[in-house]
Amino acid sequence: MLNSKKLLLTGALFIGLSSYAQEDEDNTDGSKKIEAVVISKKKKKKYKNPAHEILAKLVAKKHINNPDNLKSYFSENQSRMEIAFSSLGDKFQNTKVYKDLKKVMEDSKDSLGNDVALPVFISENISDFYYQKSPEKRAEIIKKTKVDGVGIEDNAMFSQLISSTFIKYNFYNNYIHILDKNFISPLNDNFTSNYDFELVDRDFQVNENGYYKINFKPKRASDLAFEGTLLISHSNYSLFRITAKIGSAANLNFINNIVVDQELEEVGDSEIHMPVKSLVTLETAKLGKNGMAGILKYHVSSKKIKINQDFDQKIFSKPITVLPNANDKDEQYWEKNRHEPITEREQKVYAMIDEVKNLPSVKSYIDVLEIILRGYYEAGKVDLGPILYTAGYNDVEGFRLRAGFRTNHKFSKKWIFSGYLSYGFKDREFKYGGGIDYIISRDPWTQVGISALHDLDQVALQYGNFLLKKNAIFDAFSKNGDMLIRKPFWKNNYEIYFQRDFVNSITQRFTLRHSTFDPLFDSSYINYTDEHGNVFNNFKTTEMISETQWKMGRKALQSDKNKQVIMNNNFTPTVTFRFTHAFKGIMGSNFEYNKIYLNVQQKIPMGILGQGNYSLTAGIIPDRVPFPLLENHLGNEFVFYNRNSFNMMRFFEFTSNRFVSLQYTQYLEGLITNRLPLIKKLNWRNHLTFNYLIGDLEERFNANGALNGLNGKPYIEVGYGFSNIFRFLRVDFVHRLTHLNNTSSVFETNPPKFSIKVSAQIRL
Length: 764
Hints:
The chain is mainly beta and 764 residues long. It is built from ten helices and 39 strands.
């Protein structure tokens, strides 16, 4: 017997569906004959986004359509950049500078056609750009350049910074590198994971050609991703046009939005689309009520495009070349060779910048900014500083005053003279140093120099230093406070060096150095006895140091100033090999020994996981030397975090004559914080740290047992933390995992297992 509920349901379905039954011919009794109804259960079809199908075909043809997969290509590029302040703070409007600028800004409102704006920079380049796939090489030859701006002195360098070499966006790549960050491309191989797409027009017409018009936006507004529109060709599913915007919701500092507009065209008879017009607009955020906001516009036009040709390999000898007459003023050249004629508005911008930069109040304002950014005050042909070292206090010198200088390019473009004098009011001792450098050649960069100093130094800071960029705050702070625990000593140092770029990616430096070591701490701690029974509590060394650094893709910019400018905008490793040999007997040197070091540093882009930074160092000192000449691993007992030290290690806690160390930081950007409801509004970012050290101190180096080696057990510390707090503050929570019970004659207590460190860090 049928279940009553099933029977009722069957009846209801029959009645409900009978109204849709088809009528047939009448029966003889006048009634209608109804055809049988067949009921079947059908699965609801899952919605398929038509945009996904189109994008899947584009991704499948990336290997054909991506310009970077061509054998080679050439283009003549014209690039133009403008920078203006579009908003000025309330306090600034009450200054003399603003009153001087007010008329210029009101004039700019009429000429720029927008709100009141203050133009501060404009530039133009015309260049030839070459690309080769295998082996991958790029070269740009700047034929003509025109740079004008407030506070701009080094026109040659700026003309290279705005070249298309540094600002080139290919959306076929999975990630677009902007402002040292990797943004997920809407044409990423896994495009559905990060973006929502909508097909808004299947047959969008441009010049009688059909295109798919697709809108896109990130699944999470705070991700480093774009929002905008794509035009994709019907014929071969190649990108024809894109407008991509990074909004203020993205976890970026100081940036309101970035917009990239790019148009591509077919090249010759091929179906390959190459970028012919690109416009990048960047708007900075106003920092508070009294801050300023600015707008940057960068435009690139490409013509005379040629693909799959063979180039003379000499072209690629330098990534960027500025022709000798590139900076010469030649208006006829510009009128003839500009891809697009200069507008009346742009002509007015040039005139306004000339007016602005000649105002005395503006010059004073620029001087203050340069002191903050460079650490020196420019006084004509001489720079005074570094400002951070002007005054300090430590337990050896007491209050310390220091005055220093260096000559700049206004004095000479070949010779550089520098020096300093300091005085401690407790030890009543003068310290001093000076140097002379000579630039033999700028291309390739070749430089020699000689220097001498008489000053205090600290054994704790005598380590295998491979810093690519000096930590000025840590360095200045280390000269203050409790210097005695860092074992100070008097140092006389005399040095001569020669440095040259032998090829674009390799720099070689040779240094001959003579030093004296006279400790201010208990000399019995050294207690070094040589093979003849001679006891050394102070000593002299004469060293020859050879250092070779290799960086693939390294770009050395030509500069009018007396300092080489290096742009490392790629993610290839930097490898440094350093060999030191000390000569016994030369200039009274007491020892003969060798030191060998190898260091590798690299930034690794990891997509949505952010970026990894590591520094891997290995070193060996095979010959017996006093402990100040060994590797005294850099600890950090300051409250400030230093990524180049072991932050939970005490000074002199571990010494090695052979070691391997790894220092690693994973910048997660907003991977975690962007998903936490309360924190994501603060724009905080996460990072992880891992420091590892394994080393050995042979017994022959530690005859009196005063030194502490790792004894085959690695030192490990891990950390995690938040950065971008108030846009500049970083907080690290660091845990020490090994050597937790470590006391000795030097350390009466065990080390701390946990510490909170702070530092200043500004990352866009």
